[in-house]
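Tokens help. One example:
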Amino acid sequence: MNLLLKYFINTILPPRCIRCGKILAEQNGLCAECFQKISFVSEPHCKRCGFPFLSESEQYNSIGQLCGECMKERRPLFDLRRFAFIYDDESKNLILGFKFLDKTGYAETLANLLRRAGTDIWKENPDLLIPVPIHRRRLLERRYNQSALLVKELAKQTGIAANYTALQRVRHTVPQVELSGSARRNNLRRAFAVKDVSKIKGRKVVLVDDVETTGSTLKECAKVLKKAGAVKIYALTLSRPVK
């Protein structure tokens, strides 16, 4: 963009913090105060799933720097999983505004946070970025898929190809937040499909979503992608609750 035009636009519509609305000197999305309030994930964390070790004892007791859940997995679906920040009272309005309140302008800033969180994944040289899909009925209601918006911006920032149609949601389901336990898993059975296996076979795929709560949605997507021939699957999400 022409520097003069950019200066003119920023003068009329100055960049603002996406969390508090404070005017910013630069287009970086978050003011310093809000940045400090968000609990970004940093080391030490599980080397496979990215879950932070919240105490020294957890890190000491880990084997090969894996968390307890990852140590139990014999055949993990994901080669790596990463998330940018902890889902809590300080961060949840970013997610909710982006997902439900048409705050699509958040996409560039949030994708930038995803890019930073995915450093270990980028070292693996993945072939494709794929958003977790939503059913066409929900797409008509919401008018956009927030995960697809993240993938669009992330593709620009990383240069990795994006595919928005290879993985599809073929069955309309009840929102996962309304369910718990086994009901979540049953709700998602046969909900996803790969229509063109040639787009997936032999590829290293990064699944992108906004929030990982129990991981049920990501796991169902991964199973379908594995069956379609994906050689490696990574998961990259904005946020995850930490209890």
Summary: Residues 124 and 204 are 9 Å apart (CA to CA). The chain has a mean pLDDT of 89. The radius of gyration is 18 Å. The first strand starts at residue 80 and ends at 86.
